[in-house]
Amino acid sequence: MICRTRHQSLFPLRNLLLFSRSSSPEHKHSAAALHRHLTTPFLIHQRSITKVRLKWVKNRSLDHVIDVETDLKAACLLKDAIKRSPTGFLTAQSFADWQKLLGLTVPVLRFLRRYPTLFEEFPHARYANLPCFRLTETAQLLDSHEQSIHQAREAETVERLSRLLMMMRTRTTPIQSIHPLKFDLGLPDNFERNLIPKYPDHFRVLKASNGIGCLQLAEWKPEYAFSALQRSHESKNGAGGNDEYRPFKRGQAALNFPMSFPKGYGGQKKVRAWMDEFQKLPYISPYDDASRRIDPESELMEKRVVGVLHELLSLTIHKKTKRNYLRSLREELILPHKFTRMFTRYPGIFYLSLKCKTTTVALREGYRRGKLAEPHPLARLRDKFYHVMRTGVLYRGKGESMVNPEMMLNDAEEEEEEEEGEEEDEGSESCYDETSDEE
Questions:
Q1: Percent of the chain with pLDDT over 90
Q2: Where is this region: Disordered (predicted)?
């Protein structure tokens, strides 16, 4: 929240007193130094605002989405692993240690047996006690639909990956840092072999000094350097049709981030005042390298960090990702060491979930009533995957015979009624504490 501290009005006098102490003979400061000290803008030296430390509020509907999609992601990754296998199946021994890698809270063998509509179990030809799993016909059909979407949307996928690289300091990142984001960014399996070589005008593959393979942007694409927030304001208001989209020095503009406050925050004047002042700060595009001309301790840099995180989450298919995936890109994205504070500091923009024994961050504006506001075709197909998975759980004995073939051609059936609104556990009546930024 933005409000002036009680001692701020005394700041010039305090500076003068501090200077007079340091102007003793042993320090020998000149009059010019005094002039510089008193005329330098205040924001360059320290924050001029008092923040509000907001208490975390649980969002049941978003937690449910993350819970569901954890199993969905694991099933899709296992499906891809079975496809890559030269034998067309996986043995229980081959995936024995994949539980943490897949983000599961149960052993992989138990997970595969839970969804017989996707994974068919059979005994090994030589070792009868060794369980093996292959894809069912339903899973193969869904996979063929997925490949069709990847082909039809390939240009869009290339743009997403290019924009990710364009936000980075050196326009380069290790390929191993992108692999955890493959599902979230909607990248095809084996994208480094099946996608990257087809676009030499967009990407280069090179090796770092330590031998690690890296992906580099081959050429800057100015048509991509337009953030999701800028596109949203442009589409809603038209070019130059919005008073809030006013130019600032160096071409900056003030753009408002969409905000949806948890219950207990929206009506609080201190929180609203803080957010209003934050919105008035100039918006710096995440594609603009402003690190050298912005004080890293200023509110302006904080808004830039929020913009970078907002844009990165906007690039994902489900408008969410795990915090640890972002941590591996922190230095290239020029994020502060403790950048995850932004997720709880701005609960109207982000939601931080602790479901499934991990930390996931979601973009609030990407969801309405617990569902994606603008689902990507891949997200719709993944809904079908989950419908098939649920059918396997509900009708384990009948398996694939209970899957409706028409569902494969149409949108997944709605098994649950839409929630009337986002359910959130309200905190205590005092949902915030005044705090400085030194945490």
A1: 50
A2: 404-439
| CA–CA distance, 344 with 321 (Å, rounded to integer) | 15
Instruction: Please write the tens of the pLDDT for every residue from 351-404.
Output: 999 888 889 999 999 999 889 999 999 999 999 999 999 887 766 655 555 555
> Which amino acid is located at 185 in the chain?
L
Compute how many other C-beta atoms are within 10 angstroms of the C-beta atom of residue 185.
Answer: 19
Strands of the sheet with 320-322, listed across from one edge: 320-322, 360-363, 350-353
Amino acid in position 70: T
Helix (H) or strand (E) holding 360, with range, is: strand 360-363
The pLDDT tens digits of the residues spanning 350-361 come to: 999 988 888 999
For the chain, the first-to-last Cα distance in angstroms comes to 15
Q: Which of 438, 355, 372, 279 is nearest to 56 (CA)?
A: 355
Nearest of 356, 367, 355, 412 to residue 386 by alpha carbon: 412
Residue 40 has φ and ψ, to the nearest 5°, of -70, 135
Does pLDDT of 68 surpass 70? Answer: yes
Phi and psi, residue 139, nearest 5°:
-65, -40
- Rounded to an integer, what distance in angstroms lies between the CA atom of residue 422 and that of residue 419? 7
Structure tokens at 96: 């024995």
- Say how far apart CA 345 and CA 34 lie, in whole Å: 36
Q: What would the mean pLDDT of 42-61 be, rounded to a whole number?
A: 61
Q: How far is residue 45's CA from residue 381's CA, in Å, rounded to a whole number? A: 51
Q: Please answer whether residues 381 and 145 qualify as being in contact, where contact means their C-beta atoms are separated by less than 8 angstroms.
A: yes
Say whether pTM exceeds 0.85: no
**329 phi/psi in degrees, rounded to 5:** -105, 5
